[in-house]
């Protein structure tokens, strides 16, 4: 008997389908970063927390980001398996490549901060949904969020939004308040999209 909560073998994505999903998902996420940078905004998740800690303590962002991600990769390997972990590594690497490439071919000369927040939120939300549906994340809290949704039924979007609220709460004392508010709006758009569209009872495959 086939469960409606788990995909049958024939419903699972092929390697080619997963590859195109990871390419599209990471491209959308990199585009989201372009919108954030164009509007002078910050992001949530581990990247946002790393930026806040690096700014407050005078540390290198890359080092903080790497160290904070290590426990989450351990969770991915132990709880989600090798396939999920390897796809996530691939997604992080491809996302990094896109963020170097896109600024060479597109720039925003005049972008309203409100538009930047909404567009960043929409593209990020769409990108995460694509990655989640192909069994990958961009590391960090996304790993725990997917695991909790798969095992406890707690929606990934709400997990991420809760974490983002904590990150922006810390950022409030370090960055311009207006920028933090708009950044939070973008994060809220992203996580509401994930919470309402990435549902275990409708669609999930690895």
From TrEMBL:
Q: Which GO terms describe its cellular component?
A: plasma membrane
Q: Where in the cell is it found?
A: Cell membrane
How does the record say this protein sits in the membrane? Multi-pass membrane protein
Q: Which Pfam families match?
A: YitT_membrane
Question: Per UniProt, which keywords does this protein have?
Answer: Cell membrane, Membrane, Transmembrane, Transmembrane helix
TM ranges are: 21-40, 46-68, 80-101, 113-132, 153-173, 179-196
The keyword tRNA processing is annotated on this UniProt entry: no
Annotated signal peptide: none
Q: Which InterPro entries match?
A: UPF0750_membrane, YitT
Report which superkingdom the organism of origin falls in.
Bacteria
User: Entry's PANTHER family?
Assistant: UPF0750 MEMBRANE PROTEIN YITT (PTHR33545:SF5), UPF0750 MEMBRANE PROTEIN YITT-RELATED (PTHR33545)
Put simply, this protein is called Uncharacterized 5xTM membrane BCR, YitT family COG1284
Q: Which organism is it from?
A: Shimia aestuarii
Show the taxonomic lineage.
Answer: Bacteria, Pseudomonadati, Pseudomonadota, Alphaproteobacteria, Rhodobacterales
């Amino acid at each position: 008997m086939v469960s409606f909560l788990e995909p049958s073998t024939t419903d699972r994505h092929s390697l080619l389908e997963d590859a195109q999903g990871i390419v599209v998902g990471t491209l959308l996420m990199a585009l989201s970063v372009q919108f954030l940078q164009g509007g002078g905004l910050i992001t949530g998740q581990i990247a946002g927390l790393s930026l806040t800690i690096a700014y407050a303590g005078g540390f290198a962002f890359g080092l903080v980001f790497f160290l904070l991600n290590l426990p989450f990769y351990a969770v991915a390997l132990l709880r989600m398996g090798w396939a999920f972990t390897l796809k996530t590594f691939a997604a992080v690497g491809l996302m990094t490549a896109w963020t170097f490439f896109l600024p060479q071919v597109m720039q925003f000369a005049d972008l309203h901060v409100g538009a930047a927040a909404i567009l960043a939120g929409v593209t990020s939300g769409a990108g995460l949904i694509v990655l989640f549906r192909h069994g990958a994340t961009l590391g960090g809290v996304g790993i725990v969020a997917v695991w909790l949704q798969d095992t406890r039924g707690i929606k990934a979007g709400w997990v991420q939004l809760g974490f983002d609220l904590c990150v922006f709460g810390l950022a409030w004392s370090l960055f311009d308040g207006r920028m933090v508010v708009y950044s939070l709006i973008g994060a809220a758009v992203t996580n509401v999209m994930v919470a309402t569209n990435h549902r275990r009872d409708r669609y999930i495959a690895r």
